[in-house]
Amino acid sequence: MSPIFYACQEESIDKEDEGQNQVSEDYPTDGPVKAEIIYEGEIPRLYRNGQPYFIKGVAYNNFLDLVPAYGGNSIRTYGVNEDTQIVLDSALEYKLTVCLGIWVNRETDGFDYDNEEEVAKQKERIRQEVLQFKDHPAVMIWGIGNEVDSRYTNYKVWDFIGEVSDMIHELDTNHLTTTVLAGADPTDIEEIALRAPSLDILSVNTYNAIGLAQGKIAGAGWTKPYMITEWGPNGTWGNVPMTPWGGIYELTSTEKAQVYTDVYSQHIAANINKGCIGSYTFLWGYQTHGAVATWYGLFTTKKKPLAAAQSMYYSWKGGYPANRAPRIESSESLTLNGKTAFDDLVLKVGDENYASIKAVDLEADQLTYEWQIVREGLVISKDQRFEGSLPGLEGLFTSNDQKSVKFSMPGEGEYRLYAFVHDSHENVAFASIPFKVEK
């Protein structure tokens, strides 16, 4: 294993409650569907249409049609926009529920919760959004705000979210309300309980600190249910090792998959009797921007599954698909000029370089190879067209389909080398190396 994250060991998931695997076949397609919290003693359970419903969800970005095929039953959005009706109708088509995000302006982005006029405008905007979509049969939960606690100082935001929750319950008696925190700070949770008591669920986005979340939530006195609404490998914004120039070391797709398997087993499924009513994995589909273009995302841009998607298949269905993605066991499996990412490679303009990748396939499928080099901070636009797994720089490789390749760099800058490994069943693995080019 690379030194980026904790070592993850192979293990089977111990299902504490078989109810988490229940997917109701009764999916109404007309009118609003009742969602409610019912307590078994002190343990909260989510029910939808009178049936137990454990959320096996995804933070949605692309490829909604693949969610049910992998065992998922719900998606999460972040705000209402021109695509919301299409997303809800598509969720309905695939028998998925939706935690429908309502964007709440954040203090860190310049919004002032002491400005009563702007606060009132925002509340009216939200009122219209709720009225527009409250009767859609795919809606299950209203997600009021995403990470409004990010670098904030004014607790009035929780008063506002409490007022919105009250308003939603008046307008819509069929669905539940939540708000999403960036982590599980006990002070924030205490303020929410005091200022927004009508919220039905607490939601937390958490990555490297997910192991502390349940204890912090319970320790803050929260007795209602909670969800983990984003989770996955440690974020690029966290305390991750990097090169001297700031290039971040990245886990291979195989290593990331083990993180998803372990985190789900240890911190989501394990807490089903401790208040957790499910989660939303980050990120379904692929990233379009970020410090590292492939850090999150369970599929390639060409809709091909990575091992992390198959980890969720395993976690939700209890077994792997018939054919699994190739394996790149560690970051050291990819070398550049005989060195690994952790050697902090600085190349010279015009010099010839050599790269090689080691991968295996569990089913002994024939493997093919694809190499890409991108500038760090790559952004993929929504309508961008490109042939490979990424819109890499063109004309760099003498050949692009072998286990080992040669290339030279024409100019200075900070870059990332990718090796994508494809099997004959449309599954993909990848590894990357950050490098710098100087004269």
From TrEMBL:
It comes from the Bacteria. Transmembrane segments: none annotated. One of its GO terms (molecular function) is hydrolase activity. Residues 114-232 form the Glycoside hydrolase family 2 catalytic domain. Keywords: Hydrolase. SUPFAM superfamilies: (Trans)glycosidases. This is Glycoside hydrolase family 2 TIM barrel-domain containing protein. It comes from Marinoscillum luteum.
